[in-house]
Amino acid sequence: MGGAAGHGFRPDVQGLRALAVSLVVIYHLYPSLLPGGYVGVDVFFVVSGFLITGQLWHGYQRHGRVRLLDFWGRRARRLLPAAALVLAVVWLASYFLLPVTRLSDTASQIRASALCFQNWQLASNAVSYLKSADAATPVVHFWSLSVEEQFYLIWPLLFAVAALPARRYRRVVLGGLIAVLVAGSLAYSVYETRVNPRAAYFVTTTRMWELGTGGLLALLPGRIDRVLRRQGWLGWAGLALVVAGSFALSGTSAFPGALALLPAGGAALLIIGGSDQARLGPARLMSLRPLVFLGGISYSLYLWHWPVIDLWTANTGKSAGVISGLAIIGVSVILAWLTKVLVEDRLRNSRILVGHGWRSLSVVLAAALPVTLASVYLAGVPGQWDGKLGPGYPGAAVLAGTVTHVPDQPVLPPLDDRQAAVPTYWRQGCLAAPDAVRPTVCEYGDTTNPVLTVALVGDSIAGNWFPALEKIALRDHWKLVTDLHGTCPWTATLTVNNGTRHTSCYQWGAAVLHDLLTSIRPDVVITSDLPSEGTVTHPQPGPQAYAQIGAGMAQYWNQLEGHGISVVAIRETPMLGFSAPDCVAQYGASSRKCGKPAATAIRPDPPTVQAARQMAGKVTAIDMNTFMCEPTLCPSVVGNVLVYFDGHHMTSSYSQTLAPYLAPRLASASAVLAGHQ
Questions:
Q1: Left, alpha or beta for 411 (phi > 0: left; psi -120 to 50: alpha)?
Q2: What is the pLDDT of residues 606-653, one digit of tens each?
Q3: What are the CA-CA distances from residue 336 to residues 50, 296, 342 (Å)?
Q4: 423-577+602-633+654-674 CATH choice from 1.20.140, 3.40.50, 3.40.1090, 3.30.1560
Q5: Cα end-to-end distance, the chain, whole Å
Q6: What pTM does this model have?
Q7: Sign of torsion, CA 487 489 493 495?
Q8: Which residues of 283-314 are buried (b: 16+ CB within 10 A; e: fewer)?
Q9: How far apart are CA 203 and CA 71, in angstroms?
Q10: Sign of CA dihedral 197, 201, 203, 208
């Protein structure tokens, strides 16, 4: 995103930057209009690799060595002051405009962004199912800047290695080193995108090949470079690839991996065949004055556009329309232009800093401001709540009708303490990862001298019942075994989500059945699921898909019953479709805005109900939703207790308040459980 050419100004490259930032901005504003607009970041990577490598090689030829301090100082002057300004302003705006539930994550990411490791933090969050569902912060887009800043630290060292042989071999050695790095990084990107797609999107190792591709272009031998630069058709082909990628790809594509060759290759071809030396190429189009202007402010525009979008959306509660979207673009462009003129240009051309490596490098101290602001806030965040509910927190007892008066008390668990709201099994790593095919088995309750063994099986919605079941298990001396998955319902039917077949879920389900029958051998299996999947013949969630998923559930249940294992299903819990803590933080615990009509929150005829129907009375599907919803509304807070820690996962505290009402219904549904009360 930042960078200066080593071989003179090319207006077409500025136009390419304008194209890249435009794709990203449109994607963030209207993702359905340009589903693959995120490829603009990949274009930026190739452009940066080309410009920075050209700049380093130009200096290398002039001085015979890489002047590291001078290079890093120029990069610091160019990038860090503007980034630090945006981070500081965004934190102050977030503090006053965002709900308290989002401030800790925002502060943490601001600090990581200022210290240039945010992409690794996001990769870590992405593989954590608990963190992966968090709302994006106003600085989430800084991940790509962290990749580039790490590139700037590493890249000059390749030139130092290339300086070891004789001068005439240095271009070959340097090109060979970069080619090996590009090949290795691309291969790793393909592999990691397949086995760990969430983290692969962010990590530097899967992106370095794109920067290296630009670097190889800057090192092309003069004769080859001159021939290729005259091929205007290459530029048009590159433009077509970039544009095609922005429409053909989407958020569900296996990206980066091999698919990133589409925008990265397109950007490379545009750099080769897009200059004014090319015959009948796109140079005139890419050098239009509006594009050159936009390319000139592209770095600052990239910095500002997402915070403006995110803060506007958070405060209005809706996505941008045509008029509001144009207003957001206008505000972002003005902020970007002011930042470029008043911050970027002044520091880049400062007489005090130019030519003085250490002075230039000292501007990294600008990062201290956002780091300090974020760290002070994080240091003041209270410790985790102890999880104990007092007498003023009846929870489900209110909907059960056993408590009629609820005192005015702060909501628990605290809205900004998500860890305290999450069930114990989840915090202890007993929820299999979304792509896992092997079961994750954990034991709770009375594990020394149990009177019976109960297995809780399914996805994280089945896990909603863990806190209530653990409470019952400790009272009645059960051993409670969990076998829970981050995304998979427990069914023999192959499920589909967003067009992708969940073969991993099918494998996991079969492995769970095998373990239940051969090693765990429980007396009772309790199960539930999230009704959000489709099937191969009915890809969209709905009655037909639910019937097929239910049939697959019944297939597993029949096998368990055939081996003398009792099965109890719990009907799927309501789905709000929005963050309950965020809503309560913004509107208050009693606001009707933080409820969802029961008719839409509770899915009709979901898979467990259909499966129980197919079992012809052998399995009962318990319906606990009357203890979570009023007759017409499913609220976010009941009896001063927060019901959900997101849009569909129950808080541990509320689940525990359901235990007195769940236990008798379990006994009614299973003779085995009834005999051990």
A1: beta
A2: 999 999 999 988 999 999 999 999 999 999 999 999 999 999 999 999
A3: 24, 10, 10
A4: 3.40.50
A5: 65
A6: 0.85
A7: negative
A8: beebbeeebbebbbbbbbbbbbbbbbbbbbbb
A9: 24
A10: positive
